[in-house]
Amino acid sequence: MMQILENAQLKELNSFGLDVTAKQLCIYHSPDDIRQLIEQTGGIVGKRILILGGGCNLVFVNNFDGLVIHPANSYISIVSETDDHCLVKAGAGTVWDELVAWAVEHNLGGAENLSLIPGTVGASPVQNIGAYGCEAKDIIESVNVVSLTDGSVSTLSNADCRFGYRDSAFKHELKDRYLVDSVVYRLSKKPQFVTHYGSLSGEIEKLGGPSLRTIRQAVINIRNSKLPDPKVTGNVGSFFKNPTVSAAEAERLLAQWPDMVTYPAAEGRTKIAAGWLIDRCGLKGYTNATRTAGVHTQQALVLVNLGGATGSDIMAVARHVQQSVADKFGINIEPEAIIV
Ligand SMILES: Cc1cc2nc3c(=O)[nH]c(=O)nc-3n(C[C@H](O)[C@H](O)[C@H](O)COP(=O)(O)OP(=O)(O)OC[C@H]3O[C@@H](n4cnc5c(N)ncnc54)[C@H](O)[C@@H]3O)c2cc1C
């Protein structure tokens, strides 16, 4: 019988460290658990549910008045290999960075640039996590899912997942229909190193030149120097998406602010660094009146729980940041974090 915990604490299950509860919480180990859950509850689909990995990209504005399913199936195994690559399967509950460390130890390439991204393997296809010029979609071979309707198991190909920038079909037509049980990654025995991004190549040189180990270490060093550790200061990484504007709008903005940080985007549009916009509003280090929540002092894109913040405190800071950016630049910035 699947155990359902009532009024369960979620403080340890969200990286903002918000002190919230779930009406019900189930710990998932295998597809059998979903079948049992469906039998016990008379069906899950249509009810208020949340699949919760590490909670590293979520803001709980209130206690969660529904059923939380938390995958805890943690394993890494080799499915098959050739001279060139290795197919590696990992359970959804595996800590993402443990998989990256395992791959590097086994001289398998493809995940090293994604070192130290907080969260679980199960969220990696949902979010199409990315950093330093690489994305999960580049190494995902297939995703094994469990239907929340009937507990049946099926496999989705990389194409089925319709990956986009921090986006996938799991956030759209597959949302609340499937739980990611495990992911198969295609890791290379003859990796092509991706070292051009930002300050990565300089850091790699300091460590003796490119190898899987030095790239992983360089990424870890840079991330540790830039981003607050959620175990110390609650946060979800980048809180806002980088907005895109039309070419004409970009021209107007660049005429007024020539040092605005921009990148070319799809369909001739221009992406603007949201961190630059927030910084230029003078909001680095901003805190709310009660000093429970604010903007990180080093990274304008990161909102932080300074101690005892509620989800509402975080959202009030987020609204202040959005309003300030809209007032100064006429640009709307949207949260990347999922508001629950
Ligand atoms: C300090 C910091 C730095 C970060 N840096 C980066 C970065 O560089 N790049 C980046 O891409 N992200 C980054 N993030 C965001 C975060 O790490 C990723 O979004 C990560 O994938 C979240 O994993 P999680 O297990 O915590 O997912 P959660 O936050 O628990 O869930 C995220 C979404 O995935 C769904 N989900 C989770 N598990 C499953 C499953 N098994 N089946 C179906 N749906 C599921 C949830 O329902 C939710 O919609 C950062 C976060 C922090 C705190």
How many whole angstroms does the radius of gyration measure?
21 Å
First-to-last CA distance: 29 Å
Largest sheet, order of strands side by side? 6-7-12-10-11
Helix fraction by DSSP (H/I, runs of at least 4): 10-25%
Q: Which fold name is given in CATH as the topology of the largest domain?
A: Uridine Diphospho-n-acetylenolpyruvylglucosamine Reductase, domain 3
Q: Give me the CATH architecture of the largest domain, please.
A: 2-Layer Sandwich
**How can the largest sheet be summarized?**
5 strands, antiparallel
**SSE string:** EEHEEEEEHHEEEEEHHEHEEHEEHE
Query: What spatial form do the alpha-carbon principal axes imply?
Result: globular
Bound molecules: flavin-adenine dinucleotide
Low-confidence stretches: none
Instruction: Give me the secondary-structure category.
Output: alpha+beta
Count up the domains. 3
Strand content: 15-25%
Number of helical segments with 4 or more residues: 8
TL;DR of this structure?
This protein is α+β, with helices and mostly antiparallel strands and about 350 residues long.
